[in-house]
Amino acid sequence: MLDSKYQTSNEFYEFLRQQLNKFVEVKTYFTSITLYGKIVEVTPLSITISSIYDSEKKSHSDECFNYYLPLNSIISVRVI
Q: 71-74: which pairs have CB atoms within 8 A and are 24 or more residues apart?
């Protein structure tokens, strides 16, 4: 989990690069709910999280959502 030991944006970027293609829990200032998904892209300014939602009503289709988040909007990241 991201904590206060990551003081600079470069350290945070490197932390996120190490979590590439891992399933994570992300809390952000943009939404009141926690986001879950796999980190599919990391840049020095943003991350992309891919989340697949399996709708119970439509069991034959999965919905894929991509979240593009600026690094400065992230409160915490935890690998699951």
A: 71/9, 71/12, 71/13, 71/16, 71/44, 71/45, 71/46, 71/47, 72/9, 73/28, 73/29, 73/30, 74/2, 74/26, 74/27, 74/28, 74/29, 74/47
